[in-house]
Amino acid sequence: MVKMKLVKLVPLVLAFVLLMSLRSSASFTPIDNYLIACGSSKSITFQGRTFVPDTQQSSLVLKSANSVVASSNSTVPSPIYQSARVFKAAASYKFKIQQEGRHWVRLYFYPLTSPGQNLESAQLTVVTNNFVLLTNFTFKNYNGSYLFKEYAINVTSDTLTLTLIPSNNSVAFVNAIEVVSIPDALLSDQAYAVNPSAPFSGLSDLALQTVYRLNMGGPLLTAQNDTLGRTWENDLKYLHVDSSAVNVSVNPASIKYPQAVTAEIAPNWVYATAEAMGNANVPNVNFNITWVLTVDPNFLYLVRVHFCDIVSKALNSLVFNVFVNSDNVLSSLDLSSITGDLGVPYYKDFVSNSSAGTLTVSVGPDSMADITNAILNGLEVMKISNELGSLDGSLSVGNILPSSPSKKNNIRIIVGCAVGAVSVMAIIGLFYCCLAFRKSKSTNQGTWLPLPLYGNSQTMTKMSTTSQKSNTASCISLASSNLGRFFMFQEILDATNKFDESLLLGVGGFGRVYQGTLEDGTKVAVKRGNPRSEQGLAEFRTEIEMLSKLRHRHLVSLIGYCDERSEMILVYEYMANGPLRSHLYGTDLPTLSWKLRLEICIGAAKGLHYLHTGAAQSIIHRDVKTTNILLDENFVAKVADFGLSKTGPALDQTHVSTAVKGSFGYLDPEYFRRQQLTEKSDVYSFGVVLMEVLCTRPALNPVLPREQVNIAEWAMTWQKKGMLDQIMDPNLVGKVNPSSLKKFGETAEKCLAEYGVDRPSMGDVLWNLEYALQLEETSSALMEPEDNSTNHIPGIQLTPLEPFDNSVSMIDGGHSCTDDDAEDAATSAVFSQLVNPRGR
User: Which residue spans traverse the membrane (predicted)?
Assistant: First the structure.
């Protein structure tokens, strides 16, 4: 009890030390640093910084037709609220910006007594050049006595205009304004979207509003203790269960910042304190510490979590999970394996929505960890502007700002002068445009750029068809730069009946996928990129380049693309039976037999094996999951969606260092921790797919009990007990040969090994799945082998799968032999005697 009381005193002691100490780190010096005391006649010192009157700042222009000053000598929350400037009409502050980029915009409001005006009932709206910050705010509907707002705005010009607009014949007012440069490294353009799980980019184009900034287990921090002038409040009032956490702390001077994390990310006082697991008085000691935060449900949020292992005595002893809402965003997080030491700061950004106006962040121990503990040092939650550029409400700047009458008159004059000239040229221009369009259409329509033919594919270009007729088809080098058929946008509109919603096949991170029919009757799938997509142009280009040089029976074929009118459209072969996932759960489609499931897994494995070995340099898919394995009309599996694919390591390399991308639940934990990508990352993801195929449930299901949320962890516990049949699809019970299931489970277990070096290659996975299929087909004639290897089955000569050789075109009697054919031939050689065991 005494110990607990001492722990609770830590924040008070730290607060005292904090006020008495000097900051050891060098302060960031902002290029733009406006600290404005609105309506004040003198400079004001607040939190160690000096705010100057708005009439004495030379680089600031105040445009106001009618404003008055309100001031008070009575008690106010702080000196910054002693004065205010009050506007009876729309007014603006125009700041000269010396350095473009992110800037803090901080606003202070306190309803002082103003002659003839009741500022408490004032309704005010605040906008910048491109973003809406506040809409019709009034203190009448606000519980607090004062209001402080902090925004991060990306300024892309040499000025920033802040406009205050009174509403409903009221007034607008402001007490103080800050416009301060932000270090470029503080806010990245990318984060990881939580639900649905996908990379999220484009944050630089959006405005952010700080909603929460918490110092876990530590005292209040202000601009006096933060080089960027931020405020960090204590987290205690947001804890779901107070007793679930205890404060821990170390000397701030002991925090060791790595090169990638500076004191600007968060001060050492944040990393020197943390909340760790306490005594929650619950039966299960593996509980989570949860913070509950109220948010506006109509917006997305940037969630930044800060960590620093200040509790461990040795490396690799603290392993825990991190959740945003119910989604496990950092599974088996081992801080010391990432940072290489104890006491080293680390942070991660996520983009999430809210659940009915509540956003929760939790940390909890990993079930496989030696020590039951979890920590969190700091938390920031920032609202992201919506598609209208608003952080408050559903109106854009264009809807709010009043139009200037003189500007309207100028526009009328310009338009009037231009109409005459345009009218004269319109008919001539229209004639030539129509002529050029017809000529272009007759020239381009039906034009096919040659796709490199590599392997056996059902989708052929006109050039490859000609080659086949002359019996001279051969394997073309993957280095070909041809990108497939170019479609005109009008052709796409015709094929999809102008993107008829009744033809919609699905919606993904890149955009929407429609069924289409080309002029010759060929059915296709048309993926139309969303201009607001997180994946964007880079993934669009990657997918074209990857698929145009990869041809294999078990890879979805790219027919062509369209990039007219800034569109990002890809045209694929049509896969009649859709994604594998829809045949496993979530629909009323017929149950797949065990044999068919094995054949589908084998097909997908062949596609991935080809990616890893079929080129001079391997290709890593990076997003293997059941929605990216598509089935044609014959249930032949084909791997799809290559937008995140990346060229693998060179011969003299062991891995590729790259930012983590993929889907949560399928991500290789080693890749996630170390950001080192290898082919074995695809193997791990495929292991998750195997368990999903067997158990017919999602890779992550936060609704289930905690130990069942992650299918990989849950299924592995049953596999290690030799009881995988207990969690398999109930529709398969009694219909699966035990030997086949055993081999399947062993294969999945090896794929899901914690470290990549312990996982098999996709060639080995393919071999084992083929074996599981043969055991299923010949269960009546073969006894279950005692060993995991078929080397002990008499009479079977094993032929290992060799990597594909791209340099040789195998031609015999005028017919080409594709990689896919060679692969099937090798497999047939291995299992020819198993098909008819009596012939041995």
Answer: 413-437
